[in-house]
Amino acid sequence: MSELIYLNGEFLPQAHAHVSVMDRGFLFGDGVYEVIPAYAGLPFRLKEHLQRLNASLEAIRMAPPLDDDQWNDILTRLLAQRGDADQQIYLQITRGAYGRRLHAIPEDVTPTIMAFATELAVRDPELVKQGMSVITLDDIRWERCNIKAITLLANILSQQQARDEGAQEAILVRDGLANEGTASNLFIVKEGLIITPPKSQHLLPGITRDLVLELAMDAGLPYAEASVSVEELEQAEEIWITSSTKEVMPVTRLNGRPVDNGHPGPMWEKMDALYGACKARLRLRNAPPDNCYD
Ligand SMILES: Cc1ncc(COP(=O)(O)O)c(C=O)c1O
Predict the structure, then answer these.
(1) Which helix (H) or strand (E) holds 134?
(2) Which is catalytic among the residues 47, 148, 190, 246?
């Protein structure tokens, strides 16, 4: 199916959606992005994603070029192309094209705004059942990992290293602390307590991370936001990683060794069920607004 791409106010076939080679996103990676899942054609946690988008823009000294209603109109039109299907939206804003290559931020430059919807990459059921393999790597990224910047070379190289070593994700370690994955947030279970590192400049404030904490709170599951040392990671009863497309994935191998008994743990099973129920509530279009239905 040849879907339309939103580009700077127009909905265009992919073959006609062109951006200047002088675009600062292309030249410098000077831009930010979001990935928003949609279930049964409805965006999941849209308000939170747009809040994070605006926080990323502010952090790179850009004013939001569109308000939430304008985004809503664009995303509704993109999603309507596949009707009620589960989908994911990618949206990106770069600082735009300027006449010459200049590190300093030009004053008179118009942002490039782009968005498209694709089929949701469904989680591999076999991997969900078996659990993921991860490795730990030194975090070679910069000090502003809270910004969802399109500049992702360090994430790409680290993710590829994990693949080269037969794992699916790398947990990034800085100063002895495990902060997050290359494209996911990190949770461990220690003595029955669900723990995720607190928000900081060393990790992305994941929308799924926040939802998992809300679901834990609502269900009365014990949880804490606390730093996770490499030793705690190695001794964890359970390890999970979370993201908008992976949802809550169990990790059963760390650096080639089994995590606890090498099977997805009971706390993960509970959380995965809570997350699934949350998605199911969104699918019921007449469900009352709650955590899951924005
Ligand atoms: C570095 C990083 N951390 C965490 C996440 C998870 O964020 P979210 O739950 O908002 O998808 C992502 C998502 O791609 C990411 O790239």
Answers:
(1) strand 132-138
(2) 148
